[in-house]
Every structure is written in C-alpha cells, then in structure tokens.
Amino acid sequence: MLFGTSGIRGKYPQFVNEELAIKIGAVLDGDFLISRDTRRTAVPIFNSVIAGGLISGKEVYVADGE
Questions:
Q1: Distance between CA 66 and CA 27 in Å, rounded?
Q2: CA–CA gap between residue 14 and residue 65 (Å, rounded)
C-alpha cells in the first residue's frame, strides 16, 4: 500500500479494503470532503471512509456526481 499525493494505492481487497477505509476516515484531522471515481470498488471504500468519519464525530461532505 502506498500513500501519496494521488491518494492511496494498493490492491483491493488485499491491502486497500473497507476496514482500512473506516480507519482512515476516523483518523483524518477535522471535517473533510470526499469524492470518488467510477470504479465499482470505489463505492464500498467511499462509504467506509464516510462511515469512519461519521463514527468519529466529524462532518463529512460528499461530492458525488451521481
């Protein structure tokens, strides 16, 4: 798994998965805006980051073109 300026990179679901996404949403500093791309695997990761943020009491703003 690689964290960089282009986001988080790694094979799904071996390295990047819903469990990791919830943890990331929970540890982000402050309220945040999230968006996603069109890959079908983006949906569960997207929802899990949102869940992690909400569970930890943050405001999560969603930019989703659908």
A1: 27
A2: 28
Convert the pLDDT of each residue in 32-64 to its tens digit: 999 998 999 999 999 999 999 999 999 999 997
Angle made by CA atoms 63, 6, 47, in degrees to the nearest 5: 40
- Inter-residue contact 1 to 31 (CB < 8 Å): no
Tell me the whole-structure pTM to 2 decimals: 0.88
3-state secondary structure of 34: strand
> Exposed, middle or buried by CB within 10 Å (0-12, 13-18, 19+), for 29?
exposed
38-to-26, 44, 45, 48 alpha-carbon distances in Å: 24, 12, 12, 16
Q: What's the confidence (pLDDT) of residue 56?
A: 98
